[in-house]
Amino acid sequence: xxxxxxxxxxxxxxxxxxxxxxxxxxxxxxxxxxxxxxxxxxxxxxxxxxxxxxxxxxxxxxxxxxxxxxxxxxxxxxxxxxxxxxxxxxxxxxxxxxxxxxxxxxxxxxxxxxxxxxxxxxxxxxxxxxxxxxxxxxxxxxxxxxxxxxxxxxxxxxxxxxxxxxxxxxxxxxxxxxxxxxxxxxxxxxxxxxxxxxxxxxxxxxxx
Length: 208
Description:
By secondary structure, the chain is α+β, with helices and mostly antiparallel strands. It is 50% helix and 25% strand. The protein starts with 5 loop residues before the first strand and ends with a helix.
């Protein structure tokens, strides 16, 4: 009995092409034919690229998570998967797929700036997903998802970038507050409350 989450592949005498069965039964003769099973379960893989230089020459370490499975979208694609992975263990398949994904992740890192990777993760995700999907499809696999999880560096570039962004937000907040107070000061109905608020602030500062 073949479960729905796996394929039974029967080959040998009587088959011009391997028979692919899922969720059913098939008769095989041990002396004349052979059979193997291939899992259709989703593989969740952690993909880490260490100290890869971006387009600016800044070394980044990036970790992503991808979900990949044997493709069942078309019989020809499934046959490719059988050709490449039928005699490999799950551990071997995961190692090969992870290495392939890491290569694409590394390549995309080299084409983008730190700012683009840090601020526009969706763009990075889509680029890795696109190139990896095409490559792994040739092996009979389907990439279901890819998401960048963590970005780090050992040279302090990301920390400086975060501090710069915080300073920009604080500056914009001060400018907005100044413009608001300027507009309100021209409103006669608001002048007295503003003076009172200002005096209260002075008193509080003196008390402190």
